[in-house]
Amino acid sequence: MSERAQEQISESPETATLPNPLELVGVEFGRTALIGVGVIGGSIGLRMKAMGYVGVIVGHDLPDVLDEAIERGAIDRGAGDLSEAIMDADLIVLSTPIEETVKLLPTILKTAKSGAVVTDTAPVKVELAKLAGETVGARAIYIGGHPLAGSSRQGIGNADASLFDDAFWLLTPDAGVPPVSRDNLMWWVRTLGAYPMSLDAATHDRIAATVTHVPLIIALSLSNWVAEETKQIPSLSKLATGNFQTITSMASLPLGVWEGVLRSNRLETEAALRKFRAVLDKCIADMQAGKFAEVWQHAHAFQKKLMRERPGDWDANCELVVTVADRPGILARIAGLLAAHEIGIRDINVIYIRERRGGVLRVVVGSRVDARRAIDILVENGFSARLKE
């Protein structure tokens, strides 16, 4: 990895920058084990294959799930036995419910090959970090992971290679993790289309409680409140559409998706709820005092800030759409051409790919001038390139 790429990796979410995927190329996990091949694990496998992963992907799940995962091309083969699945794996990814992850993690850390990287996709991290730290005889290296992406539809049948595009992927390596293992995992996250960000496990769980678990409780509470009000106003159930359905949509997710998560992060979620309750009380007081405009202005300004800071929100005039053939080294070829003309790439990912026929890449450069120059250079070298509409 280049010195510049290493400098880009920050341990603070406030100062974290996003590594250029092309600067992280060069390290590859030769054998990957996906423990759980549902919508998350399956999407990981599909994206790895779409990005030209040449290693072996082994899945571990129920037989019918493994059969469908093989049929869809998310894994190369399945293994019903856990020890067989992780044998000789360089990267092991647990995409299982939190209870199952807690159960499997110690065994995997002790039986995986020495130096293997073990990560997960669970939305709570403190419990897992503590468990990994207390595992006696661990041979593998644990780095907690949490992609801020998902789907309301579960199962391998709903896996999507583009699921993680432009999403943050939080990583929680502890101080003892070798930098090369951390950096290799960050490279892998970028190949999935996501943006890696490192932070400590406790900060992760506080963030998760604030932006995910509290909104879930709000959705459940609103749904229960309106259900109760419907007893007095029957038409409410028919008229609770639009914004209400948008705000409460999380309440429609299966109990199994959230029960274990909230149990694991209960203390942080309860603390966040108490803070939010105080905010609601202040909002009532502000409305009574005729200060609703101030409430709105503060929230509106924060929403605009969110839009600026979301990953992938580059100026459209700096984005190129490049059609490429299905040939080895095509990404390196494009990067080399632009680098030779001193055009830096801020981001690159696959928009669409069709096996054996090529696909379409999204390439983001630093300025409108560079975008126009890049189009000319790529067209001169036989590529079809244009500004993204």
* Relevant CATH superfamily of the largest domain: NAD(P)-binding Rossmann-like Domain
Helix content: 40-55%
By CATH, the topology of the largest domain is Rossmann fold
How many structural domains? 3
Q: What's the helix-strand series?
A: HEHEHEHEHEHEEEHEHHHHHHEHEEHE
SS summary, helix count: 15
Which class do the helix and strand fractions yield? alpha/beta
Structure, described:
This protein is an alpha/beta fold and 389 residues long. It folds into three domains: 3-199, Rossmann fold, CATH 3.40.50; 204-309, 6-phosphogluconate dehydrogenase C-terminal fold (Orthogonal Bundle); 316-387, ACT domain (Alpha-Beta Plaits). It has helices at residues 3-8, 39-50, 63-72, 82-86, 98-111, 126-133, 179-191, 201-229, 236-239, 243-248, 255-264, 266-288, 292-309, 330-340, 368-380, and strands spanning 31-35, 56-60, 77-78, 91-94, 117-120, 141-142, 144-147, 168-172, 195-198, 319-324, 345-354, 358-365, 384-387. Helix 5 (98-111) packs parallel to helix 6 (126-133).
Which features characterize this protein?
six-stranded parallel sheet, 16% strand, 3 domains, Rossmann fold, 15 helices, 6-phosphogluconate dehydrogenase C-terminal fold, four-stranded antiparallel sheet, 389 residues
Give the helices and strands, then pairings.
Elements: H1 3-8, E1 31-35, H2 39-50, E2 56-60, H3 63-72, E3 77-78, H4 82-86, E4 91-94, H5 98-111, E5 117-120, H6 126-133, E6 141-142, E7 144-147, E8 168-172, H7 179-191, E9 195-198, H8 201-229, H9 236-239, H10 243-248, H11 255-264, H12 266-288, H13 292-309, E10 319-324, H14 330-340, E11 345-354, E12 358-365, H15 368-380, E13 384-387
Parallel strand pairs: 1-2, 1-4, 2-3, 4-5, 5-6, 8-9
Antiparallel strand pairs: 7-8, 10-12, 10-13, 11-12
